[in-house]
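Quarterly update from the structural biology core.
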Amino acid sequence: MPAPGISVVIRTLDSASTLGKVLARLDLTPDDELVIVDSGSSDGTLAMAASAGARIVRMRREEFTYGGALNLGFETASRPWVLSLSSHCVPVRGDLLVRFRKAAMRFGPEVAAAVGPIVGEFPSPLPDGVTLYHPGELAKGFGFGAGNPNCLYRRAAWERRPFNPDGSPGEDFQWYFAAMGAGEVIAAVHAAAVEYASRRSMVAFYQKGRLERRFTSRLFEVHQPSIAGWLVRILKMAAFVALRRMHWRTAMGSVAYYAGMLAEARADRRREQG
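Predicted structure, tokenized:
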């Protein structure tokens, strides 16, 4: 079986500070393509994308939603597999597409998508392993991968089921549950790891934690955050920074994200009691 070509779709908005690092680690071959969906950058992002040979799709900033931007990128993509990659997620090694490509060559037609992990924000990736998640196995939580910051989709599966464009959070979670509800399988490619390099504010990470917990708790039995867990997270992130395994901004973002989850969980309990 010939190795499948991959379309890489990256959503951008003033992403010049991290996009160059992502592209430098992205192991594109002549059979692959790069699609940039931009919603109004003015910082050199588009020049950087053009120099990398990307197909650039523009959308108005006021029309942007995460799901809508991905749908636009997937419509432009022409390869049988499409990788949704964040402009803030830098491949840990220079073989991200090799890892996904090798996995895709082994997948049966029932596999609709394959996720890779974000190092540091989620549990450490397993070396070289691939896990298949069948319908019903996500009922107790999303225990793998990164979602749309780092996820390979079978384009034919997306054509049957485009992302929800209405602006609600968690377009990736919604897609996975709909796919598994239709009997399809989601894979985890443990070695296809990326590192989150965003410089967003701590307030933004906090709000992201609240918003994502609010949404995912409607879909499945999510992890219950606690003060003790937050303190453990702080100590863990401090150790990662000291060992030079993580940038301090990323570590602080992870702590703020967990604080947002904790705040939303406590708000849930107050609503239940009131």
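The radius of gyration is 18 Å.
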